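2.7 Reproducibility. Because tokenized structures are sensitive to small changes in the input, we list the exact sequence used for Cytochrome P450, including any N-terminal residues retained from the expression construct. No trimming or masking was applied before prediction.
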Amino acid sequence: MLDSCFEHLETTGRNPSDPNFIPENYIEVAIHTGIHEKKSKEEIIFSFLDVIIAGFDTTSVASSSTILFLAMHSEYQERAYQEQIEVMKSSLEAPTREELSRMSYLEMTFNETLRHVTAPAVVRTISSQFIIEGYNYIFPEGAALFIFNHMFMKNPNYWERPQDYYPDHFLPEKVAARPKSAFMPFGFGGRVCPGELLGVHSAKLVLSTLIRRYKFSTSLKFEEMEYNYMLMLESDKGYPVEVTLR
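Resulting structure tokens (single pass, no recycling of outputs):
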């Protein structure tokens, strides 16, 4: 991708070293910034590789999982479809940002999917010592923490039906009653996932488009799901769904 972009720039006579250079896409932004900051080719590659992985690879897994889970739960799929009709009427066009913002139930289904298939764990290095109050457990400076996301995303203290696929977990009043740390699929702090907004908006756009056109069913059962531990949890049986036109 980087080599192709360099070739295109050369062919079109556009020089990314020029301080007045105006990038036309994200890779050109990475090249222009990398040249300005005297970065190597490898460093330029990694500067946009994270966004591609965070914004697209994980989004494809989450979107595919949402379709599979809705295929397993026809009642939730119907509620998502009825919301689409309410917001989009008979239109099959891509939703606008404003229309996406009104698809609250679609976002609930997507968040519930993330609760089940998000990245298995997050690793952090402690910058200064701290103690967990009440347990007198000391975490020394420089220690590495391996935080298992699914331990708190399925904690029955915070989730009404922790092992089920239940979009109502994300009703506004239930979200308000939980600590924010009970649901952090994109990480937290200064190293929060850089592709969060891109991923969420891309997924909602794709899901909206598909749900308005098709109905999904599958022979797989949610309670029988098994996963491969990859960047996210991925169905070990793939995403087999039967698709019919609405």
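The mean pLDDT is 91.
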